[in-house]
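Researcher: I'd like a candidate sequence for this fold, 575 residues long. If you have to choose between options at a position, lean toward the conservative one.
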């Protein structure tokens, strides 16, 4: 009996102590965030400690068996690696006040879960000293997965019972239990203990876990046949439809999903015995026909992803898509080689491939959280190269993506870009700065001088008080600043009184907005000009014509009480 299926050699108190310590560690880390003490203000340490507090106890709870020394040794090595990776990922969230690390954290947690799952089963296997065996790895993986899943379900049930207890007493005006159960110092250790008890219970029920595994195999046998039929019929249809409709509907993603599901169900149905025949021979051959065609999916997906990279450069999503493509392609070609060599006995190749691919996946999940394979840096380098080569202009560049999705590499790139554009393209400087405005304190990142420098048409005759009003108007609408591609100030006599009004053209991503400033005695009247033709206020479909007319100075008026402003043949009216 494996150590995963029998905890009799491990003192139960040791497992419960591990669970309790995990709960206390998570509670302390949460409190550091809540009350803003170290390591909250240093995310590199916070991420590192969280990685350690989550992964190490789980590996010990599920892995400790009749050879605890080796499990502890391997867990310590893996935990040290995770601590370093957590430190690096946390460092990507600095400076903390300018970087939103939700996406950063989500990616780290997801890869951490996959890596820990893989590391756990290999650690359990290595601890025995036996030669790597797919049969044993398979049993370990499903036992670990189901044991932890059921333990978490038990934890949720425990929490539900506690909330019912608290609710019942609260209903009769006894608030003690409600207040107690909602205290973090109570529920962190309590839920961690519940999880520890759940692991302890289900680890001792290896037979039940194996039965559940066989049940899910029976259910997936049917689904695998359907998936194989879909896979084959889809490829037979493609010659008649072509690939163009596929790219219009996110085809690369759908193909990756198809491959992922096929590979998952294949490994769930053809489990740990390469001699097993869960289907009749003709169905078995239909299945491996579907498997043999998976490399075609890899080729199609590679073509679609390559087109996207050529058109738009590397991004986080495309880096992840190529990583998944590489993993799925390696599985697919490995299985195909086994089918070509062994025919009906190709499951022996499946076992050989899976053992080695498991280690590769583990390595990749760790590497993507390291400087060696940092997708954020790859994306920044690619997009900046497109900017340098002229494939994308400064006005079209996606500053928002750099600000909110690329963490510290994106932040550093924007700071460098600001220094390069501030003299020749002050409007771009203001646009970048707008993404770093402190909205809570209503404090813009651009100075008044920087904002005014971005406006074409300001000269010594422009009234000082008007400049103050224009500056305040521009900085009051940050969402417009983030879409702005330039400002131009010019004059037109719109009311025929002989005194020109100042007009500010606010060039947005999809159009141009016009604002009139009219002097009335001792104050300035500010009005947004409305487009007479079309919808909205800026003729979004005619932006290029408007910009050409503004550049040539082709603007005038039409006689009315308030004359219409005309720019390039299009009219804008004072409301």
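Model: Candidate sequence:
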């Amino acid at each position: 009996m494996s150590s995963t299926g029998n905890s009799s050699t491990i003192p139960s108190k040791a497992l419960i102590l591990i669970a309790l310590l995990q709960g206390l560690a998570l509670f302390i880390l949460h409190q550091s965030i809540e009350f803003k003490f170290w390591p909250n203000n240093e995310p590199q340490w916070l991420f590192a400690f969280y990685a350690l507090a989550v992964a190490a106890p789980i590996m010990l709870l599920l892995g400790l068996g009749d050879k605890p020394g080796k499990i502890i040794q391997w867990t310590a090595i893996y935990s040290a690696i995770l601590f370093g990776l957590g430190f690096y990922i946390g460092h990507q969230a600095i400076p903390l006040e300018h970087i939103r690390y939700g996406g950063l954290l989500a990616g780290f947690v997801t890869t951490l879960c996959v890596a820990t799952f893989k590391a756990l089963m290999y650690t359990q296997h290595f601890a025995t000293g036996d030669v790597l065996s797919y049969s044993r790895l398979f049993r370990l993986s499903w036992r670990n997965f189901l044991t932890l899943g059921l333990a978490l379900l038990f934890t949720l049930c425990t929490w539900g019972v506690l909330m019912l207890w608290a609710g019942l007493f609260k209903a009769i005006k006894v608030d003690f239990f409600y207040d107690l159960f909602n205290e973090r110092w109570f529920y962190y250790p309590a839920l961690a203990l519940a999880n520890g008890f759940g692991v302890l219970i289900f680890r001792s029920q290896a037979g039940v876990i194996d039965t559940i595994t066989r049940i899910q195999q029976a259910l997936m046998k049917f689904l695998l046949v359907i998936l194989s039929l879909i896979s084959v019929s889809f490829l037979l249809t493609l010659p008649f439809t072509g690939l163009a409709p596929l790219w219009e509907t996110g085809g690369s993603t759908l193909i990756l999903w198809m491959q992922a599901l096929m590979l998952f169900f294949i490994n769930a149905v053809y489990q740990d015995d390469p001699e097993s025949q869960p289907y009749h021979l003709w169905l078995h051959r239909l299945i491996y026909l579907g498997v043999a065609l998976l490399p075609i999916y890899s080729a199609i997906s590679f073509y679609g992803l390559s087109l996207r990279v050529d058109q738009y450069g590397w991004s986080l999503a495309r880096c992840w898509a190529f990583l998944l493509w590489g993993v799925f392609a390696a599985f697919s070609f490995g299985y195909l080689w086994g089918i070509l060599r062994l025919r009906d006995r190709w499951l022996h190749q499946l076992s050989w491939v899976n053992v080695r691919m498991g280690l590769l996946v583990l390595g990749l999940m760790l590497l993507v959280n390291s400087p060696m394979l940092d997708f954020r840096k790859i994306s920044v380098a690619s997009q900046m190269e497109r900017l340098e080569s002229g494939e994308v202009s400064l006005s079209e560049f996606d500053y928002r993506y750099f600000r909110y999705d690329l963490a510290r590499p994106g932040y550093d790139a924007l700071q460098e870009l600001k220094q390069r554009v501030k003299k020749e393209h002050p409007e771009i400087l203001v646009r970048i700065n707008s993404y770093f405005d402190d909205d809570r304190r209503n404090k813009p990142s651009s100075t008044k001088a920087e904002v005014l420098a971005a406006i074409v048409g300001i000269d010594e005759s422009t009234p000082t008080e008007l400049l103050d009003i224009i500056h305040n108007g521009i900085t009051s609408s940050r969402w417009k600043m983030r879409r702005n591609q330039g400002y131009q100030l010019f004059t037109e006599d719109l009311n025929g009184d002989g005194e020109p009004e100042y007009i500010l053209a606010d060039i947005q991503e999809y159009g141009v907005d016009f604002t009139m400033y009219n002097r009335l005695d001792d104050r300035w009247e500010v009005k947004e000009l409305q487009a007479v033709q079309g919808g909205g206020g800026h003729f979004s479909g005619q932006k290029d014509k408007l910009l050409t007319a503004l550049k040539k100075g082709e603007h005038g008026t039409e006689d009315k009480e308030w004359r219409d402003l005309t720019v390039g043949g299009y009219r804008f009216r004072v409301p």
